[in-house]
Amino acid sequence: MNIFNKTRLIFSFFLTIISFCAYSQANVFKVTLDAGHGDHDFGAVYSGRIEKNIALAIVLKVGKILEDSPNINVIYTRKTDVFIDLVERANIANRANSNIFVSIHCNANKNTAADGTETYVMGLSKVASNLEAAKKENSVITLEKDYKRKYEGYDPNSPESMMAMTLMQEEYLDNSIALATKIEDNFDRLGKKLRQGGVKQAPFMVLHKAYMPRVLVETGFVSNPTEGNILNSEEGQNDIAKAIAEAIISYKREYFGSGVPEIADARPVKDTAKPKTVATPPANKNTPKGTVFKVQLIASIKKTPLEPKNFKGLTNVTMLYENNIYKYFYQETSDYQAAQKYLQEAKSKGYGASFLIAYKDGEKISIQDATK
Ligand SMILES: [Zn+2]
């Protein structure tokens, strides 16, 4: 073998390794687990049941299960009893380019009969009890130095005030609801141990600052003697951790992997927290025949007039009202290449979370099916 061939062989060997590494990196699903509170921030405390300790114990158990599953990388905001700012918790997930962010807490109420799990997605709520939970969890920012400047004057007693900080809060809402639904469904499978409170929406600061599908799990009420004792027990924590970890693994299977970039994987979300709601069907009058692609810009609980100035100058924006949520789409084309160009355009305008969706004869289908 001459030196030229040898060099070429070595070169292609390294190229193979590099592309293999790039491939496996792209196929690793990154989960940031956030154990609420820590150190001098105890969270809720009732009869020796301490939220910060329970949250950490559950997080470590969830993490252990995930670490034992293939192609999952677990990032922890804390693995010990330390205090971490809310914004830093979110930033740990942001810096890691995490695929999902899961914050784990316990609920509490003066009424010690209150019970049940609740899994929250980010968003504005008019429901007093949802706002109460957010207010309680957000109030820990007052333990941080200089919180007024850091949180842009946000008043933790008024969770609604957060909504004024940024418009269009509900990026990643579809995926967040899908993950939250899986977690709550798994809690339901624990039988009578924990009452399933369901998926809810409220403005949590820690979710607000994380730029990925994200949920906050209130794993039950430490204030309730029966539920609190389950939360404080090894067995109870194992059950809860298993339920959360399996939901995450199921979410990964459905929304990530199989070699298809996650961004292209926009399957319809199954029943959300409000199945009673009648979805307004899309304007079916002139449903295009065949396959069409659209760019989903955002999902929002707010109705926004379809003017370019409301969509960073983008024209041809359409809207669909589904499960209490307004979805806004950019363009419509039967050409996949063109659709990808539109997607890039949307991203360059600042819609970083936008993704492609596809319809066949008016029915939503996966991008994989659409491009077959
Ligand atoms: Zn908490």
Automatic annotation (TrEMBL):
Alphabetical UniProt keywords: Hydrolase, Signal
InterPro entries reported for this sequence: MurNAc-LAA_cat (IPR002508), N-acetylmuramoyl_amidase_3 (IPR050695)
Residues annotated as signal peptide: 1-26
Swiss-Prot/TrEMBL catalytic activity: Hydrolyzes the link between N-acetylmuramoyl residues and L-amino acid residues in certain cell-wall glycopeptides
EC number: 3.5.1.28
Group of enzyme by EC: hydrolase
Superkingdom, taxonomy of origin: Bacteria
Annotated GO biological process: peptidoglycan catabolic process
MurNAc-LAA domain mapped to chain residues: 90-249
Gene3D superfamilies: Zn-dependent exopeptidases
Any Gene Ontology CC annotation: outer membrane-bounded periplasmic space
Molecular function via GO: N-acetylmuramoyl-L-alanine amidase activity
Name of protein: N-acetylmuramoyl-L-alanine amidase
